[in-house]
Amino acid sequence: MQNLEWFKKFSFFLITIIIFIFIYGFINFYNMNLEKKKLELKKELNNLKEEYIDLVVEYEKESNPKNLIEKAVNNLKLKFGEIEVFIVDSGDN
Q1: Count of domains in the chain?
Q2: What's the pLDDT tens digit per position in 22-50?
Q3: Burial 53-78 (b: 16+ CB within 10 A, else e)
Q4: What counts of helices (H) and strands (E) characterise the chain?
Q5: Residue 16: domain span
C-alpha cells in the first residue's frame, strides 16, 4: 500500500516536471521565432531609413532655389527659343 502511494506521488511529480519541460520548450521556440521576426523587422527598418535619407537628399536637390531657377530658365528657353536670360545672384547661396 505504501509503495502504491509513493508511486502515485512520484508519477504526479514526474508528469508535472514533463509538463513544465514542454511549456519551457514551447516558450523558448516562440521566443526564437520572435527574435527572428525582430531581426527581419530591424533590417526592413534600416532599409526604410536609408530610403528616407535618399529621398530627403533628392528633395533638397529638387527644392534648392538655384536648381529651381535653372529649371525655369531652361523651360523659358524651350518655349521662346534662343533668348538671353540674366541670372542675378545675390551671393547668399
Answers
A1: 1
A2: 999 999 999 999 999 999 999 999 999 99
A3: eeeeeeeeeeeeeeeeeeeeeeeeee
A4: 2, 0
A5: 2-80
